[in-house]
Design a protein that fits this description.
mainly beta, four-stranded antiparallel sheet, 42% strand, globular, disordered N terminus, Neuraminidase
Length: 357
């Protein structure tokens, strides 16, 4: 009797000890994990230092009514002097370069303050607020239901040099005017926004949070959660027709964060978070040889992030730690996880030098 009980206890112990290991098999671990934020990590962005890439910065939102925009170094350590607190539920963040303000040009970050429907702009790397208190958008909307600011992305036109911010709402209208695109207009002392167009379909099924712009190729992508990834021209003069709706099958539930890794001026990868599956699905940036707007699935990547909302990628060599680029993704334990691109790519994907690792 005793040996039999002992045998079953031993077997049960083996399985209980082995199950956690089974859950992590095949998941790529991060190189670094950021310090924790206070409330709810949500969306990251990457600023590439112009002269010393190893001194580049990672920005990340802490989504709460008394939230903040965090700044980390590439090892994930918070730089407290650069953190900007007291932002009312910041959702997404993006980084732009070469904004002309009078005689000078500056890099900058923008985050959406969801509870006020305002955009908050900060110069980089000093994080000085350019318009104290922010600039309100969606002012033409009559009711509050379509003013709940969620996703944002920046676009600098390679045609005109103009800079734009593209913004969406949690429960936007389904009449093809979901996204609003604003031109950033500057005088020597003032930054202001001018609405240039409304575009973009929304299924109404869930919500839209993730927006990403491929400035080189001139496209904007956004995740219509539970439906797919929608693609449009980023250049206002090229029209509002939907160019593609892809990733419509194979997602567990929500399509979430979108990031773009460029191999060269035309090729690369679009990575989309399959949130509930804890995977990132990868699609060709360039489409196929027959159709540049056809984006078939290439692979699915299992990282150690959990329930990831937002991500960002850069193929710039960021010093010796990230020679082939970087991938940063939010995880639901109040952190952002930082990966070397070659670890994300594995044997299936390429790196900036077009060689498989």
């Amino acid at each position: 009797m005793f040996p039999r009980i002992l045998f079953f206890l031993l077997v049960a112990g083996i399985y209980s000890c082995s199950s956690p290991k089974q859950e992590t098999i095949g998941k790529t671990p991060p190189t670094f994990v950021t310090d924790t934020v206070n409330f709810d990590s949500d969306d990251p962005a990457i600023w590439v230092h112009p002269t010393d890439p190893s001194q580049s910065l990672i920005l990340g939102t802490d989504k709460d009514s008394i939230g903040a925009l965090y700044v980390f170094n590439l090892q994930g350590k918070v730089i407290d002097s650069l953190v900007r607190r007291g932002i009312q539920r910041p959702n997404n963040v993006d980084v732009g370069y070469g904004l002309a303000l009078g005689e000078t040009k500056m890099d900058f970050a923008v985050t959406g303050e969801r509870l006020t429907s305002k955009l908050r702009f900060f110069s980089l790397p000093d994080m000085k607020e350019l318009v104290p208190g922010g600039i309100e958008i969606f002012e033409e909307e009559v009711g509050p239901e379509f003013r709940d600011l969620m996703g944002i992305a920046l676009y600098k036109s390679p045609i005109s040099g103009k800079q734009y911010v593209i913004a969406g709402r949690k429960n936007g209208p389904t009449d093809g005017t979901y996204l609003w695109q604003y031109e950033l207009q500057l005088t020597e002392t003032r930054l202001q926004l001018s609405l240039v167009r409304k575009f973009g379909n929304f299924s109404g099924k869930n919500e839209i949070e993730a927006i990403a712009v491929d400035a080189e190729l001139g496209y904007v992508y956004y995740s219509d959660e539970g439906v797919g990834i929608r693609k449009y021209y980023a250049e206002p003069s090229q029209g509002n027709a939907e160019l593609a709706l892809f990733g419509t099958t194979g997602f567990t539930e929500d399509h979430e964060g979108i990031s773009i890794y460029t191999l060269d001026g035309k090729t690369g990868y679009i990575l989309v978070s399959d949130q509930q599956a804890n995977l990132f699905q990868v699609f060709p940036r360039e489409g196929t040889l027959e159709d540049s707007h056809n984006h078939p699935l290439i692979s699915k990547i299992a990282l150690s992030t959990n329930q990831s909302d937002g991500s960002e990628a850069s193929s710039s060599a960021l010093g010796s730690l990230f020679p082939k680029g970087i991938f940063v993704a939010m995880s639901d334990n109040k952190t952002f996880q930082i990966y070397r691109w070659e670890d994300v790519a594995g044997k299936q994907l390429k790196s900036r030098n077009n060689s498989n690792d």
